[in-house]
Design brief:
It is a single chain. With 152 residues, the protein is mostly helical. It is 51% helix and 3% strand. The protein is elongated and about 80 Å long.
Length: 152
């Protein structure tokens, strides 16, 4: 048996146990480093699958109040609320106006004044009409509209 620095005997089992723990710690550090070092992805809590309930519970403004492409955006919001409720709004109204999801922009007049909100809705609707899954829509919208947050 080998002796440690204090002169006591150590077994191979102890060495293996220490080696295994050290390796596990190393792997955890590497994984954490990779996770922290990647581009921050925006995590949006999707519609609760078991209940089908929306995160945003306020009613969508009627499209009758608006005209043109703005009215169309509000009509789309009423047609596919679960999709919009699963999307992050890249005008960063969550940080600036405490919005919950892209759907929140259409519970008030914010969506009518913001080109980012409007473009996200039209893009998501196009993907929805192409038969894309909710996951595919979320990934595509994130990929197209992601931009780093900058305080104004």
């Amino acid at each position: 048996m080998a002796k440690n620095k204090s002169g006591k005997n150590t077994s191979n089992k102890t060495k293996k146990r220490i080696s295994t723990i050290a390796m596990a710690v190393f792997v955890c550090i590497v994984v954490a480093g990779v996770y922290v070092g990647t581009k921050p992805s925006v995590k949006v809590q999707p519609v609760a699958p078991a209940t089908g309930m929306l995160i945003e519970t306020r009613p969508i403004l009627t499209d009758a109040v608006f005209t043109g492409k703005v009215a169309e955006a509000y009509r789309i919001a009423a047609e596919i609320p679960k999709v919009l409720d699963s999307l992050f709004c890249y005008c960063y109204c969550k940080k600036n106006h405490n919005h919950k999801t892209l759907l929140t922009c259409y519970t008030n007049k914010h969506g009518s004044k913001c080109d980012i909100c409007l473009n996200e809705v039209f893009y998501a609707y196009d993907l929805y009409n192409q038969g894309k899954t909710l996951d595919e829509i979320v990934i595509a919208v994130d990929k197209k509209f992601y931009r780093p947050y900058r305080r104004a």
